[in-house]
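Audit log entry. Action: structure prediction of a protein-small molecule complex. Ligand: zinc ion. The ligand was supplied as SMILES and no pocket hint was given, so placement is left entirely to the predictor. Protonation state taken as written. Sequence taken verbatim from the request; no trimming, no tag removal. Recorded inputs:
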Amino acid sequence: MREGETATARRGTMRLMSDGTRTHEGGDAATVPCAGCGKPTALCVCAALQPIATRVAVLILQHPQEQDRTLGTALIAHRQLTNSRLVVGLSWPSLAAALGRGVDARRWGVLYLGAASAGAGASGGAPLRAVAANGATLDDQAAVLAGLDGIILLDGSWSQAKALWWRNPWLLKLRRLVLTPPAASLYGALRREPRRDSASTIEAAAFAVAALQGEASLVPRILRPFALLLERYRSASPPERPRLDRRRRGR
Ligand SMILES: [Zn+2]
């Protein structure tokens, strides 16, 4: 983890403090998070992590109460993308503050919470659309998307993502992007998603970056550790099953 990041293990099995120290507070070996990928040891996906350098940068804002350490994907997305940053918190004064470096905010977009209601038809099959504040698809798609250096993803449940959205007014000034995942989430039946087009955070990152770079082959490469996670999860019987009934957004 980079400086400033704080992750808290679910049910207190481990805490990773902002200064990088880890505090174990009990829990057996199978549930103690791996230091590399943050997953319970039994589900460790480090073997599939293969950091990829992308042109498009990814910034993940994670709600502090987002605590699904079993099936959450923000940390493995961050580990998998060298040009990414994961920060945990509720608000930051600016994009530069969240990112830890100065950038041209006009060249950044945020995956908007708005439903892709106008999606299927209006997108013309494109997985990523730039939209106006009223949700209307912008005319100059190719130019707008080509002008983006980075994208922001909000990690948490729907209500947590909404809280992040409203607590960070600078997000309103960025390009708004709507993702229509070209494939159903690999989560399958593991998570009851509020919408058919909901994707995990790592899937949203993979689809969006691949679309912006015009490199479809990036998707399976970025998703390798996520696929391994689900494979391990489905074949193992974790001592502690996560709650599956939470209404989730990108994770
Ligand atoms: Zn690991």
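Audit: result stored. The chain has one domain: 51-231. The longest helix spans residues 218-235.
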